[in-house]
Amino acid sequence: MGLIKEFKDFAVRGNVVDLAVAVIMGGAFGKVVSSLVNDILMPPLGLLLGGVDFKDLMVVLKEGYVDPAGVEIVAVTINYGNFIQFIVDFALVALAVFLIVRLINNLKKKEEAATTPPPPTVNKTEVLLEEIRDLLKK
């Protein structure tokens, strides 16, 4: 019974629930950002680069062929274009996340500034009275 109660306490703890929500939201957000990169940003970037699709860039180490038994032997290639594509994807995803976090932080700063009351104003009479009091103490 102790193990079940301990697991229940662990599972309903706020940190675990927050982590679960973060993982779910992160997965959904990842799909949105991937679509932004692949469907919105990459087509114009490829067009600017002369219609180059990075995924097609490769170095062929050994050509593919069909052996005498009729079995197709695939080519051996270094697909550096995929690597470039992943680097571009990562950079764009990092930029998108940075801009979103920056926007959220700016909104928080504005909210905090709006809720912070202005410091109390001190009028000249109060300042003079404090100076007189301090002189009388001496």
Automatic annotation (TrEMBL):
Membrane topology field: Multi-pass membrane protein
Compartments, as annotated in UniProt: Cell membrane
UniProtKB keywords: Cell membrane, Ion channel, Ion transport, Membrane, Transmembrane, Transmembrane helix, Transport
Lineage: Bacteria, Pseudomonadati, Bacteroidota, Cytophagia, Cytophagales
Domain of life: Bacteria
Transmembrane regions: 12-33, 83-104
Pfam families: MscL (PF01741)
Coarse class of the protein's main subcellular location: membrane
Protein name, as recorded: Large-conductance mechanosensitive channel
Function: Channel that opens in response to stretch forces in the membrane lipid bilayer. May participate in the regulation of osmotic pressure changes within the cell.
Encoding gene (name): mscL
GO molecular function, one term: mechanosensitive monoatomic ion channel activity
Summary of subunit composition and partner proteins: Homopentamer.
GO cellular component: plasma membrane
Family the entry assigns: Belongs to the MscL family.
